[in-house]
C-alpha cells in the first residue's frame, strides 16, 4: 500500500476529515465575472444545485470547465473511492461566500448519532456501524481563499463521526468559542474532505478578505439525501440517479467509463 494513501486513510478515519493541498487557478476570476449580489449572511451560498435550495440544475458547473474539472479531479476521486467504493454520485453542490464579521453557521451532521435522521436514542450505540451509511456521504471542499484558526470557515468536532452520543446542547449552541470545536486550517488551493457523519459547521468569518469555498457532495450510488439533482455538463455517470453499486450503477473506475470521459474532458479547440 502506498505510504501517502495509508496515511490519508488513517487520518480520514481517525478525524473524519482530511486536507490535501492542490493548485486552483481561474476560479476566482470566473466567480468575479458572474457579478453575483452578496448572499444573505444567514445563508451565504452561491451557485447551488440540489441540497438545501431543492432545485435541480447544474449550479456553478455551468460557469465553465474549471468548475467541471474539480467534479472528478483525480486527487478527489481517489479519496472518494477509499470511502465510498467504486460507485458514487455527485449529490449536490454549492459555494460559500462570507465577509468579515459574518456569523457562525450551526453545527450539524447528515447521519450518525447527531443527525436529525438518527434512529438511535441518545447515548445508544448507533446501529448502522457496518452499513454503507456510515461512510456514505462525503464532501470535497475546494478552498479558494485561506481559512483556519483566527480567520474562520469550516469547523468540526474531530472524531464525532464515531460518537454514539448526540452532541451536548451547550457545545451545539456555543460552538464558536468551544474548546472542542476545531476550525480547520486549509490554505487557498487546498481540498478538504470530510464525512457528513462528522459534526461540522461554520465559524464566524474574521478574515479581511472574502471567504470563497466550493463544496461538491458525493454519496454511494444507491443512496440520495435529496429529491433534486445536479444536472450534467459531463462525467454523466457521477450525475446519474441512485442505483445499486455494480448492478445498476457501473464502477466509475472501469476502463470503459474512463475512455468515454476522454473526449468530453478536452476543452474547446
Ligand atoms: O464549510 C463550511 O463552512 C460548512 C459547510 C457545511 O455546513 C456543510 O457542508 O454542511
- Write down the Rg: 18 Å
Q: How many structural units, i.e. domains?
A: 1
Shape: globular
Low-confidence stretches: 262-269
What ligand molecules are bound, each kind once? 2-oxoglutaric acid
User: What is the helix tally?
Assistant: 6
Helix content: 10-25%
- Name the CATH class: Mainly Beta
How much of the sequence lies in strands comes to 15-25%
Task: Order the strands across the largest sheet as they lie in space.
Answer: 1-8-5-10-3-2
- Number of beta-strand segments: 10
Strand count, sense and barrel status of the largest sheet are: 6 strands, antiparallel
Structural class: alpha+beta
CATH superfamily: q2cbj1_9rhob like domain
Order of helices and strands: HEHEHHEEEEHEEEEH
How far from one another are the termini? 39 Å
What's the rounded overall pLDDT mean? 86
Q: CATH fold name, please?
A: Jelly Rolls
- Tell me which CATH architecture applies here: Sandwich
